[in-house]
Structures are given as C-alpha cells and as structure tokens.
Amino acid sequence: MFAPPSPSLPRALPAEHRARLMSAAREVSFPPGTRLFEEGGRADRFWVIRTGTVELDMRVPGRRAVLIERLGHNELIGWSWLFSPHVWHLGAEAATPVRAFEFDAAAVLALCEEEPELGREVTRWVGEVVAHRLHSARVRLLDLFGPYGAGGAL
Fold first, then answer.
1. Is residue 92 within 8 Å of residue 98, measured between CB atoms?
2. Percent of the chain at pLDDT exceeding 70
3. 150: exposed, middle or buried (C-beta count within 10 Å: 0-12, 13-18, 19+)?
4. 3-state secondary structure of 53
5. Domains observed in the chain
6. In this predicted structure, what is the pLDDT of residue 86?
7. Cβ(132)–Cβ(77) under 8 Å?
8. 96-148, pLDDT tens digit by residue?
9. pLDDT tens digit sequence for 68-104
C-alpha cells in the first residue's frame, strides 16, 4: 500500500514564489536505471519531475533495498538539502526515462535568504513533503516487515 501523492510544486507554492524558484532551475534528463543519489551521500541539489517516474528506496541490512515510493509529474525529489547534516536519507533511481528540473541547493538557499517569504514557502512545502515521505516509509516498512496488515492500521 502506498500513501497518497506528496505535495507537488504547482499546489505547494504561490505563483510568484513558484516563478522565482523556477528561475533557478535547469532542465536535465536521466535514462532508466540512473541513480540520482544514494542514502548517506551529500545532498546538494534537488529535482522536480517533469515526465517519468523515480523510485525512492531505503537500505535494509541483510536485504535488498526496499522500494518506499514512486514519484511522478511535478513531485519533489530530495529534501535533505534543506536540513543539516545535508545527507540523503533515502536513495533514488529513475524507473523510466525522466525529464526534470534540477536545482542547486546553495543557489536556492541564497534566494530564500534574500527573500524571507520565499524561504518560508519553500520550507513549508519541503516540510509537507518530508511528513508525507516519513508516513510512506512507515507504511511501506510495516507492510513488508510488520505483523500481517499492520501497514493499513494507521
């Protein structure tokens, strides 16, 4: 069982802040199987998916990585860039061909510093994504490793 979609960029930020944030974006593409980042690595960027699917995974000792969530159009990939110690808490891999907007974390943090209202909106948006991803990870891990049916009992 997967949780409902996480807060996407169009719904998350007012138009003026969305436009300001998008001024710092560059377009990138990833073929299927490309690892965008690994759990524990340095988080210095993030992406918003235009097309395609990215899978978030978590390492589980003694097992293969566990699929936590699939992300698609307009969803945020990566939130660890905003919070110390700026290391990825999950891994991410392109499941299909992906086109995305890529953001340099340092540039976005500088924009947020210059424009406190933008900073508040970006922090709120990313915080909502973090809460959603935590819920998704909990449900998925309970589905896989908890007593039968535990993941649905939230």
1. no
2. 88
3. middle
4. coil
5. 9-144 (2.60.120.10)
6. 96
7. no
8. 999 999 999 999 999 999 999 999 999 999 998 888 888 887 887 787 777 76
9. 889 999 999 999 999 999 999 899 999 999 999 999 9
Q: In this structure, what token pair is assigned to residue 113?
A: 């510093």
What single-letter DSSP state applies at residue 86?
A: -
H-run or E-run covering 10:
helix 9-12
| Cis, bond preceding 97 (omega within 30 deg of 0) | no
Q: How far is CA 26 from the centre of its chain?
A: 17
The amino acid at residue 90 is L
- H/E stretch holding 136 reads helix 116-145
**Mean pLDDT to the nearest integer, 1-22:** 69
CB distance 68 to 135 below 8 Å: no
Give the separation between CA 19 and CA 66, rounded to whole angstroms. 35
> Which pLDDT band holds residue 8 (cuts at 50, 70, 90)?
low
Alpha-carbon gap, residue 39 to 57, rounded angstroms: 8
36 Cβ partners below 8 Å, 6+ apart? 30, 47, 54, 77, 78, 92, 93, 94
